[in-house]
Design a protein that fits this description.
alpha/beta, 11 helices
């Protein structure tokens, strides 16, 4: 992957998340907090509750690395729901790196309203060029953001660079299932404005090659069809309300594309779960 490809992908992601249509969809259907894939206790559970459960599950895996005086980097922080949860639970300092100025504006507003402006620094930028010194953070965290990277190997290398010795890397991502045909995934990639999707095998290989230890993947793919089905249901339920915040064209696209996502999940084309790894201690 060339530097031009990575730069182009960053621009596409910025333009996508910086539109009023996308902002309105996430703010209305997801509530503008934890705008990520959820771990569902039931097929009718609220998306926000399931999304928060994912945050809690990841946080449990890195809890011993966090606390007052510790630092965490959230790559692709969105509206900052995870960052605020982590600041509240652990009292750690957080840098929330995100490429969309529109999302970052809402993030800062919510931080100020909830009293977290002093713990969370919202930074506009790309995770392929992280504006931080080597070894600065005790934890690097990301949720469904790496799929938008034009060079995932570079993004992971940057994440490891800014991770302190003994620090933790924890992330989720929407991935292609091993063996899934690229042509079968093309409609979904087009909807997400991404060139392709990584696989769990790719991430395991890259994390190991970067020298991380204890690499593990908790496969939670069974929650994907529930998640996309719930999104489709909520789009229909919020139909009249959505027309006030997003365009008719975008709404029609959601109604067409979300069922495609449900079908792709049920056909076993997609994978999702939590990766966790540790950076080696300095010798």
């Amino acid at each position: 992957m060339s530097e031009d490809d990575a730069t182009q992908a960053a621009g596409v992601a910025r333009d996508y998340y910086n539109t009023r249509d996308v902002d309105g969809f996430y703010a209305t259907v997801w509530g503008g907090e934890d705008i990520h894939t959820g771990i569902y206790a039931g097929h009718e559970e609220a998306i926000g509750l399931a999304s928060r459960r994912t945050v809690e599950r990841i946080a449990d895996q890195v809890a011993d690395a966090l606390g007052p005086g510790r630092g965490l980097l959230d790559l692709g922080a969105g509206y900052g729901g995870a960052a605020r949860y982590l600041a509240r639970r652990f009292g750690c300092r957080i840098v929330a790196l995100n490429i969309s100025p529109l999302q970052n504006e809402r993030h800062r507003k919510l931080n100020a309203e909830q009293g977290f402006a002093g713990l969370i620094d919202v930074v506009t930028g790309s995770f392929n060029d992280i504006p931080a010194a080597d070894g600065r953070f005790d934890v690097v965290w990301s949720q469904e953001a790496l799929c938008h990277s034009g060079d995932r190997a570079l993004t992971l290398a940057e994440a490891v660079r800014v991770l302190a010795p003994g620090g933790r890397l924890a992330f989720t991502d929407l991935m292609a299932a091993d063996g899934a045909r690229p042509d079968a995934l093309r409609p979904l990639c087009d909807r997400l404005n991404v060139k392709d999707l990584a696989t769990a095998a790719f991430y395991r290989e890259r994390l190991t090659a970067l020298g991380l230890t204890g690499v593990r993947f908790e496969d939670l793919s069974e929650h994907l069809p529930v998640h996309y089905q719930r999104l489709a249901e909520e789009v229909e339920r919020h139909g009249p309300e959505l027309t006030e915040v997003i365009s008719e064209e975008y709404l029609n696209g959601l109604r067409e594309n979300l069922p495609l996502c449900v079908r792709a999940c049920r056909e076993g084309l997609l994978s999702w779960g939590i990766f966790h790894a540790r950076k080696r201690q300095a010798v």
